[in-house]
């Protein structure tokens, strides 16, 4: 699960909602009633969208058992893969942004990424490493995990950004819980 403790940035969304409410009150006090109503409508819409976004992320989670791994992610339908179905898995550190875990099922052509902000992320990495062919990547600027996997699978030409990409040998790979 993603929680406030594992991802404190969720608090920022709450602060934005409060700021929208304050802006609405100030709009009614210092501007015309019509302007206040317009600001209220925009604030309600934006607050609703932010709350919906936050709730979907907090409700998302990953579960594992002896036979499979299941993803209940905010941006897609629930997915479950038998361990044997997963052709590639790993830990990815992009040039910009936050690290994440990934699993790719070549048979279904399905890629799932799990951001490092999930609780028990290190435990998920350990379990994936023990059950799957596991790779650690550092992506160069502008390179996506999709491009890197296409390159690894031999599906497409290497990315024009691939200059900074590198596969990190297992013995040199940093522990995902340690800052780099």
Q: What structural category arises from helix and sheet content? A: alpha+beta
Which series of helices and strands comes N to C? HHEEEEEEHEHE
Largest sheet: 5 strands, mixed
Helical fraction: 25-40%
Measure the end-to-end span: 24 Å
The number of helical segments is: 4
Percent strand equals 15-25%
Estimated radius of gyration: 21 Å
Order of strands in the sheet with most strands: 6-5-4-7-8
Uncertain regions spanning at least 5 consecutive residues: 161-165
Would you tell me the overall average pLDDT?
79
Overall geometry? elongated
Number of strands: 8
Structural notes for this entry:
- With 180 residues, the chain is of the alpha+beta class.
- 37% of the residues lie in helices and 22% in strands.
- A five-stranded mixed β-sheet has the order 6-5-4-7-8, covered by helices on one side. A three-stranded antiparallel β-sheet has the order 1-2-3, with no helix packed on it.
- Strand 5 and strand 6 form a beta hairpin.
- Helix 1 packs antiparallel against helix 2.
- The longest helix is centred in the first third of the chain and has 26 residues.
- It starts with 9 loop residues before the first helix and ends in a 12-residue tail after the last strand.
């Amino acid at each position: 699960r993603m929680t406030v403790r594992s991802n404190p940035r969720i608090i920022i969304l709450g602060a934005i909602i409060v700021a929208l409410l304050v802006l609405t009150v100030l709009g009614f006090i210092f501007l015309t009633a019509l302007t206040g109503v317009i600001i209220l409508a925009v604030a309600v819409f934006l607050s609703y969208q932010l709350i919906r976004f936050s709730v979907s992320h907090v409700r998302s989670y990953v579960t594992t058992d002896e036979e499979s791994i299941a993803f209940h992610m905010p941006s897609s339908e629930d997915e479950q893969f038998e361990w044997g179905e997963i052709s590639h898995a790993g830990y990815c550190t992009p040039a910009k942004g936050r690290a994440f875990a990934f699993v790719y099922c070549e048979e279904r052509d399905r890629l799932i990424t799990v951001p490092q902000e999930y609780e028990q992320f290190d435990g998920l990495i350990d379990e994936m490493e023990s059950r799957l062919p596991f790779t650690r990547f550092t992506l160069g600027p502008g390179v996506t995990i999709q491009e890197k996997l296409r390159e690894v699978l031999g599906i497409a030409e290497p990315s024009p950004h691939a200059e900074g990409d590198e596969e990190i040998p297992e013995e040199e790979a940093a522990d995902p819980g340690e800052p780099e």
